[in-house]
Amino acid sequence: MAYIFVRHTVEDFDKWKVEFDKHASTRGASGSKGGMLFRGANNEVVIIFQWSSLEAAQAFAQSDNLREVMQKAGVNSAPTVYFVEKVEDVAI
After folding, report:
1. In the chain, what are the domains?
2. In terms of C-beta distances under 8 Å and separation of at least 24 residues, what long-range contacts does 19-26 make, across chains too?
3. Which of 11, 72, 4 minimizes the C-alpha distance to 36?
4. What's the maximum distance between 2 C-alpha atoms anywhere in the chain?
5. 22, 42, 46, 66: which could join 38 in a potential S-S bond, CB 3.0 to 4.6 Å?
6. Distance, CA of 41 to CA of 59 (rounded, Å)
């Protein structure tokens, strides 16, 4: 299974969240299987998405549509993005 880890900051979390939620159907059509959203100090956002394939994840991350949505949502830092594939579950 493929995953994307994304970290960036936003001007206003609540404004960003509205745009993030509106974009869900586009993510799904592009191969997203959902994920987890984390909020840190100073409006830091970390998202871990599960994706259908690394290729689909990379194509989505490089899309003009995503850049436009991020700008509209108030992302104010360059995102840090990691594309990874799950190797195994690790026990305690």
Report:
1. 2-60+72-85 (3.30.70.100)
2. 19/69, 19/72, 19/73, 19/74, 20/73, 23/66, 23/69, 26/65, 26/69
3. 4
4. 41
5. 46
6. 30
Q: SS3 for 15?
A: helix
Q: Does the pLDDT of residue 1 top 90, yes or no?
A: no
Q: Are 36 and 84 in contact (CB under 8 A)?
A: no
Q: 4 near 52, Cβ under 8 Å?
A: no
Residue 47 is which amino acid?
I
pTM of the entire structure?
A: 0.89
Q: Encode pLDDT of 5-52 as tens digits.
A: 999 999 999 999 999 999 999 999 999 999 999 999 999 999 999 999
